[in-house]
Amino acid sequence: MAAKKPLNVVKISKMKQQQDRLTMITAYDYPSAKLAEEAGVDLILVGDSLGNVVLGYDSTIPVTLDDMVYHSRATARGAQNTFIVADMPFMTYHGSIDETLKGVRRLMQEGHAHAVKMEGGLEIVPAVKAIVQSGVPVLGHIGLTPQSVNTIGGYRVQGKDAEDAKRLMNEAKALEQAGAFAVVLELVAEETAAAITRELSIPTIGIGAGRQCDGQVLVFHDVVKYASPYMEKRFVKTFADVGSQIREGIEAYVNEVKNGAFPAENHVFKADEGVSESLDSLYGGGKTEDLPVNAEASASDKEKVGAQR
Questions:
Q1: How much is the pTM?
Q2: 291 falls in which pLDDT band (50, 70, 90)?
Q3: Which amino acid positions bind 3-methyl-2-oxobutanoate, per UniProt (predicted)?
Q4: Which domains, from first to last, does the chain contain?
């Protein structure tokens, strides 16, 4: 497909006005980002969910700023024409503004992100304001905030009752006023998410937040069922099952190596005519125990290898 121009915050805002729904997907490396861009997604999120789906952690909490910079940089190389948002990981924006901005700087300069995402409501408003004033776009994130899972009582739907719905509405408005260009609503009751979407002038991007958000985001590995074992989630639809195909492909490879079917004739390279006979005459039919050993040459070779390292 023809190269596209990446979005910016002005275009993203216009998409809400034009009722053009935003598509966002997570990506954590070069190949997944390249595939996502080729598929036409609007935004790529380098989420700290990489802790769960790529690094093997039980939560996002162990993910470090170094992890995020590394994966954001790899993702940016794969999707050079897509707007990329990188997560600020656990406890990197709850201290001093100076420390927060240092982390933001790394994600932008070293990670090559176009924006950062931050979880939280009223408590992060000062940090959001400072980051936006420094010239960096911020994507808010309320509802289920995985970095706070230990304080919100686990992975449960938010905004189900009137009081909690009002809290989320106030948080969304505060983030908008602080300068956020959009807000992710995660695991939020559909009615609450719809009301927030109507009230805000900036886009809402839902994940498990119903049908009325201005856009949707899903995890790459959920979309293509790339996990073992895969855990079904009510708010997720899988659009392909590459996990099973990968497993079956590797099993076939193992079996063919074991039974001698791979490599086959069409996988090998041939030497010039007479090379095999010449080697047999010199080295006794290829018996390694008969190979001549030149101790001096061997020592010299070792020195060369050491120098190259």
A1: 0.87
A2: very low
A3: 48-49, 87, 117
A4: 9-238 (3.20.20.60), 271-309 (no CATH)
